Amino acid sequence: MASTFHGIETAKRSLFTQQTALNTVGHNISNANTAGYTRQRVSMSAATPMEPYGFSHSTAAGQLGSGVEASSINRIRTAFLDDQYRSESKYQGSWQIQAETLDKLEKVINEPSDTGIRTLMEKFWSSWSDLSKDPENITNRQIVRQTAVALTDSFNQLSRQLTDLDADLTGSADTKATQASSLLSSIADLNGQIKRMEGLGDNANDLRDRRDLLTDELSKLVNVNVTETDDGYVINMGNMSLVDGTAAETLTGAALEAAYQGGDLSGGEIHGTFKSRDTNVRGLLSKLDQLANTLANGEFQVTVPKGSVLPGTTVPLAADTVMTVQGINGLHKLGYTLQQPATAGLDFFTFDAAGGAAGITAGSIRLNPAISADSNLIASSMRTTTDAAGVSTVVKGNNTLALLLGEAKDKAFTMDLTSTGGAVSSATIGSYYNAIVGQVGVQSQEAKRQYANATAMVDQANSSRQSVSGVSTDEEMSDMIKFQNAYNAAARFMTTMDELLEKLINGTGQVGR
User: Fold this and answer.
1) 9-37: buried (b, 16+ CB within 10 Å) or exposed (e) per residue?
2) How many CB atoms lie within 10 A of CB 361?
3) pTM above 0.90, yes or no
């Protein structure tokens, strides 16, 4: 038969269970705005009845229940949505860094503008045209010199900015590697804490939330594959193990760069950092190096008019002659300076060997120091006269070379792009530069589009996850009222049982009173 105090015990269990549910609701409401928090629910189940099925039992009808128990407190979370969020997060992180880097490149190039390389090139070509109008004019010669210096300075400055950006990205990769290592260490520690706590029979809900939040942050840095085992999370990046139980990998920038080259690192901010540096920054710098060298030494054809006297000869050309020259340097050396006797032109552009350069690049190109010191060394004439003694004298007023140099603006130079995955092509210097600028613009637009798409996918995945795991204050308030009413009813039930027992104990067996 049932115990005399069975009702009291049933009411007590109900009070404790509803109080647990109310406390859990309060915990949810308190953490409604906590990053990474997952709402929790109390799992309630009927307590073991007084007389479970057996070989003997009372003859009383039915089986008397003994109330309710809180069997567990569980997180409301779906692993599939976590995997989906982390999968999309790696793309968002990578494209974010690429979009930011390309935006910086656009600002570095600064085209179109009055101070960009395109404008300085136009001024450089125009200065030669102006010089052709009066080859002996010292002002026109100084303008040629100054526009050449401005052009080379612009190349140098752009190269320095790209080199600095390259170094910044490398440093950023090292910093992010340290950040990723810290996250991995924390996740491994949480694996151990969760295993110990759940080994005692409890659900480590809040610790699991912290671990999932750290894993989400890690997925923004690198691509991760997460598997849960009895020892906790096992996290891999491609074929590279990052976390296994309480063991965590210590990452370095060099190790991550090797993983990027090997294909294990395929997403996240660190992937975007390496790709931005190697493909965008270094790719642009390589193209600018080729452009600077092509301007100075790239092949193109000119038509040298009859009557011109080439250096090393004394006989004028009998007819217009098409010649292939090696860039501005090669053409400049076909003419004569203002020096007497007739002196052939020097290389117009040279490179700064003191800076360690082995040839002309965007970073090393400079106006020949001799020309920079003396504008009379700018070659503009292609005519000489020879006296009886065989001494050649330059015709200073001749403007043939100045005209040819001014017309070089529209000449097709040959550029070898095989080192950057392209081919040998032919176009004007201006067209080459426009193509470089245009490519950066296209890449920037594509990166921004991809970043916007990735962000939309992350937001969608997060929204789906929050619809399951997020705290709804309206829902919690509704549950709070439900559990409060249940608690009040249980309390009323206990009061009723107390009154019954009080009547039984104190009000019976006292006939006549």
Assistant:
1) bbbebbbbbbebbbebbebbeebeeeebb
2) 22
3) no
